[in-house]
Amino acid sequence: MQTAVTTREQFWNFADQAKQATEVLAAQRMRALDHVPPEALREVCIQYRFFTIDYIADLALLVAKLPFGRLRSLLGWILSEELGEGDADKAHPAVYDRFLASIGVEYEALQRPLDANRRILQGLTRDLSASPPAFGVGLRGMGGECLCQTYLSVMFEHMRENPFIRANAGDIDWEFWTIHTGEEDIVHGELTRAAIDEYIREDPAVLPALAKGYERSIAAWNLFWQNIFDACVPRLETAS
């Protein structure tokens, strides 16, 4: 994708269209979670874990790169929440690991990212480090707080239909999903959008880098999930 964005209106039109396309793609992919065996479901959930960890580190880097202002303060507040606001047990990766343990994931399995996705995440960090702040805002601000929430909501919806999850729902630690598919994450997305809109209004020159960062995030995010489903979800062979 190489979207030519020169106005604020063009950027938000592009962002809204990208969000709608992401919702459609997420629904197509996540539908498989309705019926995959428990082992495959665990593997999908394990692989998402590595995104949450790298996102926090990249968000910290983005906050450091941004100038003082509303957007920097907002993303700093979100970063604090991701890290548990001073309580390590409430840091979102720790909360997610408790969910994984509750669906039968062993600790050793938490250390095995897909090589292809490890390279994707390393590439995002490298691009964030080498690029202007506006690129990072598109990459990890828009990409993290707006794009990620869309996928997680669809993932949660389909995962709950899985027979294994339905049978064990009462024993599962749902805290991570309560945070990331509920009102709190919706508010994060709305606040992030408003702060980015103000960022654009204050300096329209950021638009090209902002759009490029968001495009980079979309491409990486879609490939990240494609790799997960290709590696972890059994393909259904159709009879000829």
Q: Regions with pLDDT < 50 over 5+ consecutive residues?
A: none
Q: Count the E strands.
A: 0
**Overall average residue pLDDT:** 91
Strand content: under 5%
Structural class: mainly alpha
In sequence order, what are the helices and strands, one letter per element?
Answer: HHHHHHHHHH
What's the main sheet like? none
Question: In angstroms, what is the radius of gyration?
Answer: 18 Å
Note the gap between the termini.
36 Å
Global geometry: globular
The level of helicity is over 70%
Count of helical stretches: 10
InterPro entries: Haem_Oase-like_multi-hlx
Pfam family, one: Haem_oxygenas_2
Protein name: Iron-containing redox enzyme family protein
Organism: Pseudoxanthomonas helianthi
What does this structure look like?
The chain has 240 residues and is mainly α. The protein has ten helices and no strands. α2 (38-65) runs antiparallel to α4 and α5 (115-130) packs antiparallel against α10. It is globular and about 50 Å long. The termini are far apart.
Structure characteristics:
single chain; 240 residues; mainly alpha; 10 helices; 0% strand; globular
